[in-house]
Every structure is written in structure tokens, then in C-alpha cells.
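Students often ask what a holo structure prediction actually looks like on paper. The answer is less mysterious than it sounds. You provide the chain, you provide the ligand, and the output is a string of C-alpha cells encoding the 3D arrangement of the protein together with adenosine-5'-diphosphate.
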Amino acid sequence: MSDALLAVEGLTTAFETRAGTLTAVNGVSFDICRGETLGLVGESGSGKSVTAFSIIRLVQPPGRVMAGRVVFQGRDLLSLPEDEMRQVRGAGIGFVFQEPMSALNPVMRVGEHIVEALRVHGLATRTEARARAIDLLRAARIGDAERRVDDYPHQLSGGMRQRVMIAIALACRPPLVIADEPTTALDVTVQAQILELLRDMKREFGISLLLITHDLGVVAETADRVAIMYAGRIVEQAPVRDIFRRPAHPYTRGLLASIPGGAAGSRLHAIEGTVPNLASLPPGCSFAPRCSERMPACSAAFPEATTLAPGHSVRCYLHPTPDSRLPIPDGAGT
Ligand code: ADP
Ligand code: MG
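The corresponding C-alpha cells follow.
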């Protein structure tokens, strides 16, 4: 797509462990267009954070990006010199993490974090930066910003800290923000406020957003499109409406069923079983061992993507590709 701000193509990241090579991200591809929010959704351990860290090249050893391209504003980040990459982090791509406390320096005042971010990228002098920091805190709907700017992180509530993180992420006006489980550590009311803030920021600052979450409910009102990740692969991708109205992958349907208060009167039921050990994945579809609609074909090879509608693709033998329909393996049914 020519309009893509970020195009991730065949991204593969693995960890060398004693148990063998663990492929945490396995041929992941997606685009994010300007002004668009893509929700990346999957259970804990599905490879969402490793995807995010791979994009900004902060995967720590023994992890390594093995293959793929990450084209951001026309340049492949994976082949950029480290000093240019440092410019991209912050000025090109801002981040918001799950645990603001671990991203904030406890001995630095709130304002100093923003001033630091601006100065690293040469965007403001010290005095300008302070005024800009106050503006950004205000933009993040932090009341009494003139006073809060001199607070230390521990003086703030969890929700306030996340607002500060969002202000820092936006300081250099990056065109893309990656928010990795930004509301997971917060209680429900604060979660809703932070999501609303992200939506407002997207509109006001014109940013694109990669919103990572284990909770499909979080993306319902915030994302334009959704990519569902399971055991390192994207198994379904669709406009948010289609994900909720016409979920095609049994895993996506399972995630939908586990949204609290999802279907009226339905009890919360999580998908049975757990994400498989990524160092010893079963042959075929990784979800097959947990899938209630498993067929013999599922254990042979990982299904290719089928396009169901514009922008809606799925990797599941319930939706065979035109090619894979012809030779029916023994006992695979019709
Ligand atoms: P998510 O963010 O979806 O919860 P992660 O991307 O953090 O999942 O992790 C995906 C998988 O990558 C984990 O299940 C784990 O097996 C593996 N992994 C992540 N970090 C490391 C590491 N430092 N060493 C070995 N394996 C790792
Ligand atoms: Mg994570």
C-alpha cells in the first residue's frame, strides 16, 4: 500500500534458548496508514511486545530479528545505522508502555523527562522546553500542569503517570505512537479515560497508533483495524467492524467470547488451554490443539491467508484458499 506510514513485512524474531530456537514473531506483516489506529491483539505470550521492540530495534539478546522489513516513512529501519535509528525513536516513533513507573526515572521531575526528550532531538532550548512541557501536560489533560511539571513520578497516581507517558511520547510530535498495553495496569474507569485520551491525541496530533492489548474490548472503540496474533503469527486481520461482526478465526471468536459483558448474559469464558511452547510448536496450525473446530488438515501445515472481504484476511482451514480446496487430503473431509 502506497499510503502506509509503517509497513512491516515478514518480520521474524527469535530467541536462542537452552530449549532451542524460540520464534516469538513469525513472518508478521501489517501496514499502518497515516492517521490510522491498528489494534494488535492476542493473549499474553503471543509475541506482541517482541513485535513492538523489533520495530524500534530494541530486542535484547538472546533475541534477534532474523528476517523481514520494517519500512517507516519509506526507509527500512532494520538496515538503518544506529545513530539514525536513535533519531527515529522518539522523533519518528513515540512509545507508551504498560508500566509507566519502569519507563520514568524516579529521581527526575515530570517536566525534566519531557525537556530531556525535546533536547535529545534538538527541538527546544531549556526555557522553551519547560513551557512546552507544561503545554504537553495540559494537552494530556493533566490538571494544574504548572505545578505537576515539578512533581516526581511517585507523587502521581497510575493514571496520571500514564498521561505523563503519553505527553512524553508526543513531545517530539512523532507521526507514529506505539502503545503497548497502555491501560492494562490501570483500573477500569481510568482505563476508559486513558483510551479516550489516546483517541483525542490521535485526532489533535494527527498521529497513527499501534495499540497493543490482550483485551479485544480495548480496541473496539479505539482501533480502525485489528490484527489478531497467536503464537507469533497474525491469524486474522480486518477492519474493526468485521472483527466484531464476522470474526472468522476460531481464536478470534474465543477472544470475543472472553470480553467481560460481551454477549448479553454470557458468562466470561476464556479459551481453554494456553499458548503453546514457542520452541516446540506443533506442525500445522499452532492453534489446532486448542481449537474446537480442528480438522485433520490442521495438523499438516500452517494455513495460508485467505481474503474474505476487502481488508479482511484469515489463516484457517475453515476458510480455504482457492488453491487449497482442490486436493483433499485423506480424511480431511470436504
Ligand atoms: P506478549 O507481549 O504478546 O505478551 P511477548 O512478545 O512479550 O508476548 O513474548 C512472546 C514470547 O517471546 C514469549 O512467550 C516468550 O516465549 C518469548 N520471549 C520474550 N522475551 C524473551 C526473552 N528475553 N528470552 C526468551 N524468550 C523470550
Ligand atoms: Mg507484552
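The pocket of magnesium ion (ligand 2) is lined by residues 48-49, 180-181 (CB under 6 Å).
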